[in-house]
Structure to design on (106 residues):
């Protein structure tokens, strides 16, 4: 049987729906710099779910990027002494600062 989750007005509420047992462990940080915004939700690694949550969004689009993932893990290691976190990171960047056609191997 599959659960169908209703739409939620905030990312926090969605994460609480997905991981109700981690509700009290959820940590949030939001930073602004000029026209840029970074919002990150962290759940310590001791929360054991069926899978590791490490998601990155740029302008509400899911991306896979090993380099950004590595930067986040290194920052968590430097800040908290551990990089074993579940995270959801959302970056808002002005569209004119992003070239969607750039591929790192070109």
């Amino acid at each position: 049987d599959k659960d169908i989750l209703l739409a939620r007005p905030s990312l926090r509420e969605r994460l609480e729906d997905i991981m109700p047992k981690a509700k009290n462990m959820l940590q949030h940080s939001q930073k602004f710099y000029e026209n840029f915004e970074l919002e990150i939700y962290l759940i310590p690694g001791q929360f054991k779910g069926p899978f590791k949550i490490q998601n990155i969004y740029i302008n509400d689009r899911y991306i896979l990027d090993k380099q950004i993932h590595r930067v986040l893990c290194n920052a968590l290691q430097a800040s908290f002494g551990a990089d074993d976190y579940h995270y959801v990171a959302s970056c808002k960047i002005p569209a004119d600062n992003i070239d969607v056609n750039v591929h790192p191997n070109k």
The beta strands are 27-33, 36-44, 54-58, 61-63, 85-92. The two ends are 44 Å apart (CA to CA). The chain has a mean pLDDT of 83.
